């Protein structure tokens, strides 16, 4: 289990938030001692070169850390293609917290990345030119192929950023049905069923944590019941989290998942805060590691 | 408005009290024997009804449950209970679990539904007289009903068995649960079409029209209805008293949807079931509220309904051993072959697949509700109904032990 970040990609458009996005990407590039690849989908000419140079200069990024990829074509497709070609470990992009109804169903560039990316990605909802470390991290401990990597990423970033809290959230599965099927038990048995349901999930999280260094972190294990993704999002909002970390889904989401949302789709529909989706399959973890 | 007289009010209250008391007593006995409560409640009805009390002491039976206004009101209670039971059956369906299991659940439920359905349909279609169908005009709806009655699955019974075996959250447990949920949705959809075809509502529909109306209503509720509920519930949770506001509005929606489907010619139960699915699927419907609704309906209205079944039908006079055996044989064979095959195709071993199939074989309360509605709508006779109730009880009682045995082998 690992969450090594050697190459960070930043999808950049010359928009009012570009400077802040670059500052956020730069902070993480420093945290992970990684290399930054700027991906611009659109026209490329002297005007764009000038704008990019100005942005980089303002951010104070050393040239050795940066590579720029100028690409033409559909922005969503281009960004995902570059991620594969460059073996990017973490793609950073800006995203609106919530899209309007039409955009939601058709899918914006950010939502396309969320649903189709093959690498880990960080969606920043409110970038700042003076980015701060993540102090309040919420991580999803839901059964997913990357659950351990997600918790590892949360603890690792929590330690690097000296976070105040890392909240680990897990769903008590089939809570409603299990309690409904228990209605013919005595009061003691009924409460035992409830206790057992919760304790079982806490034990699972503790087993994950045993394998992950988290000694200097304040960790809170929280159980929720209901619709997993939705409850996770609500919890992140309640805690005013600055980063929500989840493991990537095993399958890609389609329009059907937007009509009948479940799991991560609830989060994609209404981002509670910055969102880091951990998808370590494509991580390079190989060659160049820029110190 | 007509009023009940004082003796009639007393009689009604006494009937309700006796039914709840006896139902609880026998449900507790069933619980001690590790059997579902419904088994005890049905037996309570059989003891209080024409089968035993009516036989041993007809005077006592007639003075306890006389025909008249109080009986009519009691029947009203039973009708409301059926609607509510279907509402909670809908609430139990968690589409989120179904989407999570994906294609795997679809394979298992497809075979678990189609094979027993075909078994039930074919036997009723080719041997109508043996199954008591003398009305040639109802040949198709009757066969469709028998198919559905073989295909239906009792989700709460299955959940309880899987919990007892501590495999509810295993891959197999989740698969069985999600397949049972899909079976429930499709089973009730088909049954509503059958009821629409026999035309008890305001309109007489052809098979195609009934199918279109039923599927249209389902799609509309699960998309537009769901969207409206998702906008409405946060306001209810925030502004109204909790859980009172949510509970009364949920039941109001349930009765409204039931009335609407009854009006358009598909039975009231379908409206209640689909609104249950829609509400249960809303992320704004808290699990705690579902738990309260469950407890309220399962412990007050469900016993009234199941005890009332024993009051309506003489189980002894209408017991046909051969018919019961044949129905049991079809039920076991269809479900075990179908669900077993479906689970096997999903990548489980034969032993695990058979264990899952034994679990899916439990028909429980759903079969009894299905049978009673068919009986009240004149689709089946009392002999077939009694056989279906016995089949529901035997399949529910045997599911757990058979599943345990198969997994231990």
Helix content of chain A: 40-55%
The CATH topology assignment of the largest domain in chain A is Rossmann fold
Per CATH, the superfamily of the largest domain in chain A is: HUPs
CATH architectural grouping of the largest domain in chain A: 3-Layer(aba) Sandwich
Q: Which sequence of SSEs, written as H and E, runs from N to C of chain A?
A: EHEHEHEHHEEHEHHEHEHHE
Low-confidence stretches of chain A: 283-291
Radius of gyration of chain B: 21 Å
- Enumerate how many helices of chain A there are, as a single number: 11
- Overall body shape of chain A: elongated
* Chain pair with largest interface: A-B, 28 and 36 residues
Structural class of chain B: mainly alpha
**What is the count of helical runs of chain B?**
18
Q: What does the average pLDDT of chain B come to?
A: 88
Specify the biggest β-sheet of chain B: none
Strand content of chain A: 15-25%
Mean pLDDT of chain A: 84
| CA-based shape of chain B | globular
Helical content of chain B stands at: over 70%
Task: Tell me what you see in this structure.
- The complex is a heterodimer of chains A (291) and B (409).
- Chain A is an alpha/beta fold.
- Chain A has 2 domains: 129 residues, 3-Layer(aba) Sandwich (Rossmann fold), CATH 3.40.50.620; 143 residues, Rossmann fold, CATH 3.40.50.620.
- Chain A contains 11 helices and 10 strands.
- A 10-stranded mixed beta sheet of chain A has the order 3-2-1-4-5-10-9-6-7-8, with helices on both faces.
- Chain A is elongated.
- The two termini of chain A are 22 Å apart.
- The relative contact order of chain A is 0.17.
- Chain B is 79% helix and 0% strand.
- Chain B has 18 helices and no strands.
- The N and C termini of chain B lie far apart (64 Å).
- At the A-B interface, helix 7 and helix 9 of A face helix 5, helix 6, helix 9 and helix 14 of B.
